[in-house]
Amino acid sequence: MATVQVNLPHHQYQVCIEPGILQQLGQLARGVAPHARCALLSDEAVAKLHGGVAEQSLRDAEYDVITRAVPPGESAKSLDNVRQFYDVLLEARLERRSPVIARGGGVVGDMAGFVAATYLRGVPFIQCPTTLLAMVDASVGGKVGVNVPQGKNLIGAFHQPHVVVMDPLVLQTLPPRELRCGLAECVKHGVIRSPELFAWIGENLAAIQAVNPTTMTDLLQQNVAIKAAVVMEDEKESGVRAHLNFGHTFAHAIEATAGYGTIEHGEAVSLGMIAATKLAVDEKRCPPELLTQLIELLERIGLPTTAELVSTDDLMSAMLLDKKVANDRIRLVLPEALGKVSIVDDIPAERIAAAWEIVRE
Length: 361
Ligand code: GLY
Fold this sequence. Notes:
Elements: E1 2-8, E2 11-17, H1 25-32, E3 37-43, H2 44-49, H3 53-60, E4 64-70, H4 79-91, E5 100-104, H5 106-118, E6 125-129, H6 132-138, E7 143-148, E8 151-158, E9 163-166, H7 176-193, H8 195-203, H9 205-209, H10 213-233, H11 248-258, H12 265-282, H13 288-301, H14 312-321, E10 332-337, E11 340-344, H15 349-355
Parallel strand pairs: 2-9, 3-4, 3-5, 5-6, 6-9
Antiparallel strand pairs: 1-2, 7-8, 10-11
């Protein structure tokens, strides 16, 4: 089994990666949270696709399993659903040591994690991500939360999982568009920390797109190792964890103005990384070859490199609403070279505005 260890001052856990590992979910859960009952939160689509494998494994490990599935999609990440989940847990008399298990994509993981962080002031949490995006990003690092009408992820907490269980085989049923979206975050990891990973993705793209289990295990291990290293250095995002936001301030503006749901997060991140790198080139902070390399890799993956966008004024207004804005300054993560980025907050708005043009169709 491939593992990545996450060591934080107050908490340690393992990310376990292996084709077929879903069948061992029960044993792995017992290893970290041996209690009589557990709650398994899923989304309806995932519950149908992967049948009862996770649930059966938990029952085989002698858990009394309480299950609940939310409808697929971002709108499920609501306080209403959290409230309903609390009712289910209270009704089933889940206790302080009973684990909450999230089986699904980022929506399910964020929401179940928020419930785990707050129910009885915090219970053990187990992540069992089923999308590439959730595996390489959201399931590791402890950010949990929900959306409110005022914005995404505005209510949340840091609640680290007790174990993360990743089965590369579940990616074989992932729609190709979702696989590409996950790859956008993998490319991001390459740009911020690892020229080796960036090159490896390009060299192994055919096997990645064929969802070869060995290649996917390798892809997951490399990406989780980068994410874990960043989180271990700065758990609560007071410094380098912000590097993970490379491309994301541009991306959030695209998502907000396009209307949530019309463009996928990974697609917006692809466009956002290009705009951020163009800005870095314009500011003479990074060589133009990096922009060429980045666009070439994203194109080969099949991610968008241009899109129909709203006016630049509207995009800039959306950027100013991002929760990473501090004292009305837009904070951006800009590359300096492949594998190296820095945080910049002193670029005048008109120069940021000019960078949008490279991704406009
Ligand atoms: N997804 C960014 C982070 O975990 O910090």
